[in-house]
Amino acid sequence: MFKINEDFTKLTGSYLFSGIAKKIKAYSEANPDKKIIRLGIGDVTQPLVPSIIKALHSAVDEMADAKTFRGYSPDLGYEFLREKIAKEDYQKRGCEISADEIFISDGAKSDCGNIQEIFAKDSKIAVCDPVYPVYVDSNVMAGRCGDYDEKTGKWSNVIYMPCVAENNFVPELPKEVPDLIYLCLPNNPMGTTLTKEQLKVWVDYANENKSIILYDAAYEAYISEENVAHSIFEIEGAINCAIELRSFSKNAGFTGVRLGFTVIPKGIKKDGVSLHSLWARRHGTKFNGAPYIIQRAGEAVYSDEGKKELKEQIAYYMRNASVIYNGLKNAGYEVYGGVNAPYIWLKVPDGMGSWDFFDYLLEDANVVGTPGAGFGPSGEGYFRLTAFGTYENTLEAVERIVKLREIQKIAV
Questions:
Q1: Which CATH topology does 13-42+307-411 take?
Q2: What are the pLDDT digits (tens) for 299-311?
């Protein structure tokens, strides 16, 4: 008789954004005349830039010719892309990362969820709170998180590091030493980040305690301040304690194209076994590689033309972030983020929970955001808005929210 993996049954409800999608669908069906503006999920809205489209077309033509046709890609990914990444993203920033330490994948989400497989089942994880749900959910599936407490919204075997206004959204070093530390910088959902000096404290802590930092740098392209690291490997000592996960989704608009990579320095070892070799074995067994066509598109990201076009596209989204941040702040909201990341994190009005505010905006302003509580217990009382909409929709959404705020003041 077959048995199921009972750890999957411990997961609470559906995945956060799936649940939100169901709510939106139900409201849309009941109110077909309403124009809903979606600033919830972090999905891009601008088309792929011309240099990437050109590379895609060229690669498709190659696949139509027997002389240039490609089948399965190499386990780590094509060398032409890995060499570009190593040079442009790391070596130019002074990071000693080589092409053979880079594993090409179909996106950071799958890598974020799968990387835990190379660590022991009894590994203790630490996460910022609030946090991207994939980190915790994937460890729940692996049987690593213990039991869920509905009253606190916490798992019994997870170390939570609260990030709230009172500590300027900077997590404190955990008193109980974790084996694995998840850091997402710039942060999703809060849109905040750490300086290089603050990040060095974490690297030193990890090295002192023989912990591993799983560093999600999906939003590094949005960094605007000089004292913020684009890669954890810019920090001295990180090469001995960190794994970095990257995505092409947000910097190049690949949410529907799918491409990412993970960097594992070869020198990180436990009892003579390198994490690089374990991930290489896992990668070769469970993943058949990102398509050649897509990897050529990824290569175009690093061309001079691609860099110029993508810089303009990122500026487009960050203008949206500025519109949201300034519009809501001027209306009296307490807002954070929007400087080094395309997310705005705002305090919901007094007397409201974050899911109450979600319903309030959906029903009264027809604007969708993401409730902070969906990212963890410390997210309660906060709300995330994304800058990935169109400029026109962003302006209209802010106008609607501000108008609601004014009506609320009159009512009070």
A1: Aspartate Aminotransferase, domain 1 (3.90.1150)
A2: 999 999 999 999 9
